[in-house]
Amino acid sequence: MRHLRAAVFAALCLFQSVLAAAAQDITLTAPDGAVEISGTLLGFDGEFYRIDTIYGVLTVDGTGVNCEGPACPSLTNYVAEVVMSGASSMADVLMPALVEAFALRNGYSILRDASNDNLVLYELNNQQSGDTIARFAINATTTDEGFADLIANEADIAMALREIRDPEAARAEESGLGDLRHDNRSRVLALSALIPVTEISNPVTSLSALQLAQVFAGKIQNWKELGGADAPISLHLPARGSGLLQAIEDELMGPANLKFSSKVLYYPHLTDLVRSVQFDPFALGISAFERTGSTLPMKLSGGCGHEISATRRGIKTEDYPLSAPMYLYIPALRQPKVVRDFLRYVQSDAAQVVIRRAGYVDQDSEEIPMAAQGERLVNAIGQAGDAVSIEDVQKMVTELSPMRRLTTTFRFTTGVSELDAHSLSNVDLLAQRVERGEFDGQTLTFVGFSDGSGGASANLQVSLRRANKVLEAVKAALETADLNQVTLSSTGYGEALPVACDDTAWGRRVNRRVEVWVR
What is the predicted pLDDT for the residue at 361? Predict the structure, then answer.
């Protein structure tokens, strides 16, 4: 969106001042006049200037220089201003709820204006003095537009329903935003999932991932082919260019090497998609976990007998395979203090309560005792055979029974080499819990699992290497933890505890994981 930053606060008369005039020249001079730097002001965070000069982009401490030029901000009455742009499914409800809760928690009064389409503006004020502390703008567009605004310096934070693409990351780095694929440049705000939905009286209640992909590719066109009525299937998906649709392409269609049918109907708002499915007995749609309305959420099935429902716990553990984490991407630029405080807040325990109340899946880690994992154990026993014997399963159950599984799970992008973006965020969250002393006096065991595509001995070694990889990543993220107070260990069980069928790419990916167990 062109000129978003310059226009976003000027759009409404509620807010009297606008962002510091962008793309204007300033001159920074040392008090003794010995050093002078001229350039284009790119930003000011209340403490440091960021300017584009003939020497490149420089960050300069505002307390050591004098500023001259029309774009020079006030050092005494500084107002932090931040633009967040991207996925509308995050911008419509979740981000406003978090901004309002953050303001309330910090004792700020709030002025809110949502009179502009797709744009919500907040002004946070000191209740005693009435001084404006910060202005937050939440721009509801798409994941693509969010990244484009960030790269064009029209936004400070991008809201995304997918990981950043390589071309976007390259452009961001060229623009001086740093490597947005780095582990501290993105964080998972909340969790969601891709849910196939149909009309509530439909007799077809489950589909395999491959069947689902074939339906939306037009390879399966009649409900009769799926065990339902003799009627054509009408297809409903989120809007083109939306992060949710791109997640469907990545998670569902890509592994099956299929493209969407020309008969698909696309919806800019998930409420409209759900409403269309709700009143069409022959409809099939894909929505988000928090937007299923009065439809029938369908289970995902596999040829080996697994059926997986999208429950909150299943989404947290990522046992449900079609997950859709909600990301915030923050460039490698210094943010104003109030924005840094907000970014810390959104990962706090208090924020998890807000996320749950807003209808999304939070990241507050839960403990699952072995007794509550009967379905997983039944699947493990049912698939025991030559590669994994019933004795292997018994050994695993005996060793894990005294422990409780955390809902925090780790997965890798390629083989055993790199953790995916969601897992990198989980590393930080788990490290924070360790540093707060939540596991003092306990043992955290990182338990690796593999798919069944290799030999049993090789899979056992791969699962152990994965577990060690995560353990080392968590240890590296610890800054103040006393490791004499908590024991960190690792083990691996190969393919002994599958959570999905190995007969599909997505099933094998779900089975390749590292879990965390506590005792």
Answer: 93
Q: Quick: pLDDT tens for 498-513.
A: 777 777 777 777 788 9
How many whole angstroms separate alpha carbon 417 and alpha carbon 470?
11
Question: Per-residue pLDDT for 484 more than 50?
Answer: yes
Q: Please check whether residue 120 is in contact with residue 114, taking contact to mean a CB–CB distance below 8 angstroms.
A: yes
Within its chain, how far is the Cα of 308 from the centroid? 21
* pLDDT at residue 455, rounded to an integer: 79
Instruction: Copy the structure tokens of residue 247.
Output: 């997640």
* CA–CA dist 474, 427 (Å, integer): 5
- Round to whole Å and give the CA distance between 460 and 458: 5
Q: Hey, is 311 helix, strand or coil?
A: coil
How many other C-beta atoms lie within 10 A of the C-beta of residue 268? 13
Write out the two tokens for 463: 């699962």
* 3-state DSSP assignment of residue 43: strand
383: closest CA among 311, 449, 317?
449
DSSP 118: T
CA angle 275, 278, 281 (to 5 degrees): 140
Residue 267 phi, psi (nearest 5): -130, 130
Picking from 221, 306, 325, 311, the residue whose alpha carbon sits closest to that of residue 504 is 306
Helical (H) or strand (E) element with 400: helix 390-400
Rounded to 5°, angle at Cα 266 from 265 and 269: 135
Q: 415-451 burial by CB neighbour count: b if 16+ within 10 A, else e?
A: ebeebbbbbbbbbbbbbbbbbeeebeeeebbbbbbbb
Cα separation, 308 vs 253, in Å, equals 19
Structure tokens at 94: 């979740």
Bridge partner residues of 288 (DSSP): 194
User: Do 187 and 170 touch, CB atoms closer than 8 A?
Assistant: no
Amino acid at 43: G
Mean pLDDT, rounded, for 49-68: 84
Q: What is the pLDDT of residues 368-405, one digit of tens each?
A: 887 776 666 666 665 555 666 777 778 888 888 889 99
Give the pairing of strands 296-297 and 108-113.
Answer: unpaired
CB atoms within 10 A of CB 104: 12
Q: Are 154 and 4 in contact (CB under 8 A)?
A: yes
Round to whole Å and give the CA distance between 17 and 97: 24
Residue with tokens 């420089």: 58
Angle between helices 456-477 and 421-435 in degrees, nearest 10: 60
Residue 359: is its pLDDT beyond 80? yes
CA distance 120 to 91: 9
pLDDT, one tens digit per residue, over 398-451 is 888 889 999 999 988 765 568 888 888 889 889 888 888 889 999 999 999 888
Average pLDDT of the residues in 329-357: 91
